[in-house]
């Protein structure tokens, strides 16, 4: 009874933290617990006593309040308060201490954390505190080290929430780090160096040594396997390839390295007493945690490893499942915000899969050689238990993940062992670490080649579309049944078929009947039309828009190919279309306007023109060019007509009135600048969408007076329309308060 009560209490605490995603979720769990206390004894004779369920319900409520109390909040002196309180100066000079080594961003800038101490200009001498997310040009970040006192000149801004469906919630990410503002710096001045010792010095010594022995990208890859990806600037194309084939865990120091460290230490100290073995193992674990940083996956492995050492000291057998549950509760008491950390969730689910699913899988694979069966069972178990969560978060599967994991496991094992030996040697004598790293050149290059080849295979990453939380719970229920229930163990194929049906059938049905238009937010916004499983993409010329807005949206929508692509005239190379075609096949490519610049960057194949003579039929969508020089487009679906006005100036709009065959439309899209009054009177739109952060005041007043419903992407985020729900926006009015100073 004691063990069952302990398990119930641990699960109640975890469920209480998760319940914060729903209004009054903790009290709902309390009501469920009271219902179980009253009714379960009549249904289950060996049920825990009623007080156990009541205490569990109270614990769930307490956990929900505890998480809310631990949410970081901007205090009155936080630097983010200056963004709304001041007169919006053009630039700030901010003094503070560097808290992290600079890291390279995807936009090729240096990023580091700054602890704020002083700002200028300042109307008074009020203290200013806070933690800033700082990005500066690459050269300005050179030489920065933790502990240095610097001043940074740049523009403050509030981080934005996700402005597009499937986009990255930058505001939530910074809030989890205890930061509420960012700084786009242009200049960094080092005022005072720091002689403070830090783990970063040890990390840099290992990184430099292994880089000298292997070069790039082999050196950073080996270092990431030893230190984790946080302190290593691994090239993003290589990191993306590992993620695409389901090998992201190989880039994170976690359970494998911890088991390896403890195994080596216990083997070397086997002739000594148990106390010495435990002490040596504890020191090794503490050193490993300090070296890799306080990452959730590392802490999970370290705490479980320490639990194994305690069991060794007490001469008691460890129950892996109970140890995993206690470790989760311990870490979530220390930092309850980790309950929403995807790395934390995936680490525990993968470990749970290894504990509960590897043994039955190994028995089912008893026809294989004894040494090979675990190599096959481990990646299958980890993949099965992390897949539902990945579908909730990303909506994509890696069909080659299991075979790639099986093939690369020997290489990863050799590299992990050799990398740790090389790291220890580098701490003693750097050339020795480089020499040992060089020995690993062949397996490292082989791993990189295998990953790159697998990531380029057809179907290496298949978008299923994101699934709901209820579907994910159903999938985990099937996993539990197939693992523990004998009837389902014999009929695992039925559980597999049900799981595939739960995942794919609802998505296929939704796509088969869906018509939706999405105008994405951004400096150069793209527009996506989803027509019953077929997809048209307009204006995807900007590479940043494609990589950070369009592709995540299409992935979470379950799109694996673009049926029609329509390019608009652009002043520069259309690199966005190249980035899109590298990830998704494009069946038909159309050109608007008389001449399209940057054609060398367009996908290979025939480019068809859009004409003004007659509409071009793209499925149920009719697209027609209204003015070739300005690429004014009109598309129609049933009785809904949209006009893309683009960046036409007042003079060009006057020319449109004379030369283009325009008529009333339901929806008008333009760049947010001044609209010609006569053009607005002719078009008489019911809805106007501005692809801008700010609007012309006179045009805004004209639209309001005419009763036109107005959206703009700078305030509302992406704007979507479908026949069933009408118009909706990603952001609620007033949610986006991102102000650039």
Main features:
alpha/beta, 27 helices, eight-stranded mixed beta sheet, 741 residues, disordered C terminus, single chain
Describe the structure in your own words.
By secondary structure, the protein is α/β, with parallel strands linked by helices. It is 49% helix and 17% strand. It is built from 27 helices and 23 strands. The strands form 4 sheets. It has an 8-stranded mixed beta sheet, with helices on one face. A 7-stranded mixed beta sheet has the order 15-16-17-18-19-20-21. A 5-stranded mixed β-barrel has the order 1-3-4-6-5. Strand 15 (616-618) and strand 16 (621-627) form a beta hairpin. Helix 8 packs across helix 18 (441-455), helix 9 runs antiparallel to helix 10 and helix 19 (469-484) packs antiparallel against helix 21 (492-513). The longest helix is centred in the middle third of the chain and has 28 residues, at 401-428.
């Amino acid at each position: 009874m004691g063990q069952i009560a302990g398990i119930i209490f641990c699960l109640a605490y975890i469920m209480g933290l998760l319940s914060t995603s729903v209004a009054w979720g903790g009290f709902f769990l309390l009501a469920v617990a009271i219902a179980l206390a009253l009714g379960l004894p009549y249904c289950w004779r060996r049920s825990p006593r009623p007080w156990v369920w009541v205490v569990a319900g109270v614990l769930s409520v307490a956990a929900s309040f505890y998480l809310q109390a631990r949410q970081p909040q901007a205090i009155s002196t936080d630097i983010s308060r200056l963004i709304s309180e001041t007169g919006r100066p053009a630039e700030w000079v901010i003094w503070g201490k560097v808290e992290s080594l600079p890291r390279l961003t995807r936009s090729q800038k240096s990023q580091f954390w700054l602890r704020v101490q002083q700002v200028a200009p300042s109307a008074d001498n009020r203290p200013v505190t806070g933690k800033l997310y700082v990005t500066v040009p690459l050269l300005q970040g050179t030489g920065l080290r933790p502990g240095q006192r610097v001043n940074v000149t740049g523009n403050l801004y509030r981080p934005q929430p996700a402005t597009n469906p499937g986009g990255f919630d930058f505001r939530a990410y910074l809030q989890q780090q205890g930061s509420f503002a960012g700084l786009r710096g242009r200049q960094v001045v080092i005022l005072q160096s720091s002689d403070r010792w830090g783990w970063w010095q040890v990390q840099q010594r290992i990184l430099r040594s292994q880089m000298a022995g292997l070069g790039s990208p082999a050196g950073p890859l080996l270092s990431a396997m030893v230190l984790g990806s946080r302190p290593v600037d691994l090239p993003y194309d290589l990191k993306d390839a590992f993620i695409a084939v389901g090998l992201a865990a190989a880039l994170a120091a976690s359970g494998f390295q911890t088991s390896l460290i403890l195994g080596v230490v216990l083997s070397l100290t086997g002739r000594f007493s148990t106390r010495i073995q435990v002490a040596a193992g504890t020191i090794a674990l503490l050193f490993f945690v300090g070296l890799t940083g306080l990452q959730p996956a590392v802490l999970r492995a370290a705490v479980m490893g320490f639990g194994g050492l305690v069991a060794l000291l007490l001469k008691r057998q460890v129950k892996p499942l109970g140890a995993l549950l206690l470790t989760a509760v311990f870490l979530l008491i220390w930092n309850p915000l980790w309950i929403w950390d995807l790395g934390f969730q995936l680490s525990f689910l993968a470990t749970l899969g290894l504990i509960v699913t590897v043994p039955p899988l190994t028995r089912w694979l008893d026809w294989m050689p004894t040494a090979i069966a675990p190599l096959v069972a481990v990646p299958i178990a980890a993949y099965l238990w992390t897949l539902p969560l990945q579908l909730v978060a990303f909506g994509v599967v890696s069909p080659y993940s299991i075979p790639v994991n099986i093939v690369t496991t020997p290489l990863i094992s050799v590299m992990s062992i050799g990398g740790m030996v090389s790291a220890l040697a580098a701490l003693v004598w750097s050339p020795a670490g480089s020499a040992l790293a060089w020995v690993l050149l062949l397996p490292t290059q082989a791993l990189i080649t295998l990953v790159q080849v697998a990531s380029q295979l057809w179907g290496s990453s298949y978008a299923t579309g994101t699934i709901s939380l209820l579907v994910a719970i159903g999938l985990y229920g099937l996993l539990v049944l197939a693992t523990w229930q004998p009837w389902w163990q014999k009929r695992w194929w039925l559980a597999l078929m049900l799981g595939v049906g739960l995942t794919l059938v609802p998505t296929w049905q939704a796509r088969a009947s869906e018509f939706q238009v999405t105008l994405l937010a951004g400096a150069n916004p793209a527009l996506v039309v989803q027509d019953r499983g077929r997809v048209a993409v307009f204006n995807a010329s900007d590479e940043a828009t494609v990589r950070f807005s369009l592709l995540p949206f299409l992935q979470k929508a379950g799109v694996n190919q673009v049926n029609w692509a329509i390019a608009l005239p652009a002043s520069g190379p259309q690199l966005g279309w190249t980035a899109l075609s590298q990830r998704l096949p494009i069946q038909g490519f159309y050109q608007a306007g008389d001449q399209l610049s940057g054609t060398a960057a367009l996908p290979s194949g025939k480019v068809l023109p859009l004409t003004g003579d007659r509409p071009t039929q793209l499925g149920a969508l009719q697209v027609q060019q209204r003015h070739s020089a300005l690429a004014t487009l009109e598309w129609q679906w049933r009785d809904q007509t949209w006009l893309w006005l683009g960046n036409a100036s007042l003079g060009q709009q006057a020319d449109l009135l004379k030369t283009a065959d325009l008529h009333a439309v339901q929806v008008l899209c333009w760049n947010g600048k001044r609209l010609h009054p006569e053009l607005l009177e002719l078009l008489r739109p019911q809805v106007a969408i501005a692809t801008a952060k700010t609007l012309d005041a006179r045009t805004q007043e004209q639209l309001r007076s005419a009763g036109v419903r107005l959206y703009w992407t700078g305030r509302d985020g992406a704007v979507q329309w479908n026949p069933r729900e009408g118009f909706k926006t990603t952001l609620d009015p007033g949610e986006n308060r991102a102000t650039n100073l």
